[in-house]
Design brief:
single chain; mainly beta; three-stranded antiparallel beta sheet; about 15% helix
């Protein structure tokens, strides 16, 4: 006879790791491009990307 193997189900915490914070508005912003000049607005623009969910945000200074 063969050995009985138990298959592990993926835990809910592993499947949605880090996404619950982003849904609540607590993103983890990292700088992608710093000091990019926007010609139309005439300002410096910094591009941010969340390291958990991948959402992007621009900030004009």
């Amino acid at each position: 006879m063969g050995d009985v193997l138990k298959f592990k189900k993926p835990r809910l915490a592993e499947k949605h790791k880090g996404k619950t914070l982003c849904r609540s508005g607590f993103h983890k912003w990292r700088i992608v491009q710093e000091k990019q000049f926007d010609v139309k607005q005439g300002r410096l623009v910094t591009l941010y990307r969340c390291s958990r969910c991948g959402k992007t945000m621009n900030e004009c200074k």
